[in-house]
Specification:
The structure is a homodimer of 385-residue chains. Chain A has 385 residues and is of the alpha/beta class. Chain A has two domains: 32-51 and 258-384, nicotinate phosphoribosyltransferase, CATH 3.20.140.10; 70-245, Aldolase class I (TIM Barrel), CATH 3.20.20.70. Chain A is built from 14 helices and 16 strands. In chain A, helix 4 (60-83) packs across helix 5 and helix 4 (60-83) packs parallel to helix 11 (222-230). Chain A is elongated.
Amino acid sequence: QISYLRSVDVFKNMHQDFFKYLKKFKFKGTVWAVPEGTIVFPYEPIVRIEAPMIESQIVETFVLSMINFQSMISSKASRISTQAKGKPVIEFGSRRAHGPQAAVLAARASYIGGCEGTSNVLAGYELGIPVHGTMAHSFIMGFEKEEEAFKRFIEVFPTGYLLVDTYDSIAAIQKIIKFKIHPNGIRLDSGDLSSVAPKARRLLDRNGYEDCRIMASGDLNEYQIHHLIRKGAPIDSFGVGSELTTSRDDPVMSGVYKLVAVKIPRAQDTTHYKTFYTFKKSPGKVSYPGPKQILRIIRDGLIKMDLVSLDNEKNIPKGSIPLLKKYVDNGNIVTKLPTLQEIREIHLQQQLLLPRNLRLLNVTQRTSPVTFSNKLSTMIQKIQG
Amino acid sequence: QISYLRSVDVFKNMHQDFFKYLKKFKFKGTVWAVPEGTIVFPYEPIVRIEAPMIESQIVETFVLSMINFQSMISSKASRISTQAKGKPVIEFGSRRAHGPQAAVLAARASYIGGCEGTSNVLAGYELGIPVHGTMAHSFIMGFEKEEEAFKRFIEVFPTGYLLVDTYDSIAAIQKIIKFKIHPNGIRLDSGDLSSVAPKARRLLDRNGYEDCRIMASGDLNEYQIHHLIRKGAPIDSFGVGSELTTSRDDPVMSGVYKLVAVKIPRAQDTTHYKTFYTFKKSPGKVSYPGPKQILRIIRDGLIKMDLVSLDNEKNIPKGSIPLLKKYVDNGNIVTKLPTLQEIREIHLQQQLLLPRNLRLLNVTQRTSPVTFSNKLSTMIQKIQG
């Protein structure tokens, strides 16, 4: 890799020491971050890195691509599972994820955000996420008769769900009843679910299949699930794919990585440093100076305010909780990293802290709880003025 | 991995032979595909896999996640680079890609689609894509004076581009002139590019910087580039990020993998097979039966029609070109795979085949050249009727 870099034309004036440095590169900086799973809001600093300039720059793109993508998918999963009102949501979207690694990362983020599991078996293997699957259309189409496919599937997967929409959902359920096949549930994957699900439920109930559950899938998102739940559609669980693993309606989380302060040695004296705050003034892209902390104020078990303040401010509101914690100190991990299960628990607990206004499906109707401290506001006004 | 699968609850009724089979699994099927870089249209079968059912199923999700994502990004890159009318477009979107692997795959797909390079150095290392970079805002902010950052950067990267919008683009250009810094170009990354670019150009030209080029970036997509080019904005190259690497306005390519035919042994006679065609009838998700070929008809150097027909049809239009080629025969690669550079060349040649109607930026105004053969149309009508 280093010799590749040496060969790249733009690096031809680079000092040889740089390549030697890269060979021995180790991140020795300090990292503050909100615990994974924490609910955060726009404009909040969620990671703070203190490191020599070169180290802080080398990690930038990797940090952004991991945090932006997974935070976005966790948020989407949290929105979707909230709308499902306690009914299990399974992540089904590997085939539409942005490549195989994105599929595994999306499964991870979806699980944190409240999904019960994934159909991605690699994510199960690597991360211990519960794996769920149902049969594929092609399995059914591999048999000349649909009922033959159902019977053979249930022999191997007695607790499985039968996919009924390959040809006609209601006709398929009639076959299940006629041939006395007893699956754990059926899955509806197309059509108007708010009308097919009640029909399917009635047909099953009338024939002694009260225990047979109904799973719904097929381009679902939080809005459709909200609609189905409100209409009282008799659906017991949801499979969500493309809309979740790509965050289809907004596939970009614009998290940025900004230089906010620089410490430079005072002239002729390398033991003392002066610090200056930095910020951008580009139109529409102003950045906020100085190392910051988020102080969360909780009242009656609900988030009342997140006060974004400079790290060295003295007047801290009583009882406020600083969200950024030190995870890495001079290159060493100093806070035990939670398991995936624990991260998910943190997130589910955090959901309970959201006041009604911040649970609204339509984000434009929400009021942000984020406030900047007086000191920070004054600095920002000076920059913008 | 196998022992993980054995441990998963849903597999507890699975025959032990299945796990033994997986251990020795090797894909021994046959794969037909259109050459990578070929322009294809909705509803065309771009890959055809002939394999034992279990092999064809095991590869499904991986094949879909690789082809869906990269085809989507290549299409987006092709749209963007077409609008740039020959001006270089560099892919800049790693930090917003869906994870680190998606960033490399997006760089690859963007290069095929017509981009000149990427800022992802790993993609340069692994795939030989030309790497381009410009300075970062944080590099500039690391210095107390902007001009100091410019001077130091140009010492190491004499052919580099200076990023001028950290504080004020025009003021930064004035500093470049005042301090007699001679970069290869400048980069504008914010503001109304159609008004800033002409101002920057005039300022540079009036001061003997006629050779200093202007690169533009900042949430650009094909529509904005179209607008800038039409307005005659004096921009020499474009950097495109999030909009490209996530295909922001449509981040899902709904390519599907469907079973179209099954060969089963005739009863009591394992040397002869009968074949039956399969298809789905789910509402809105009908699939088309039978193994197919795309026959492309080119007239006067332009695509006139793509005839999707059954593979065994006899009346092939004279001079039509079958697009699906055999790449893998019983598990062995039988067609030499092209280099990335060759794939890109194929695509750029293919762009020349597009008639005016198919180059329209607004896809709703286009007319698809795809026609189904009479035999296939009749079969589809029978299914739907």
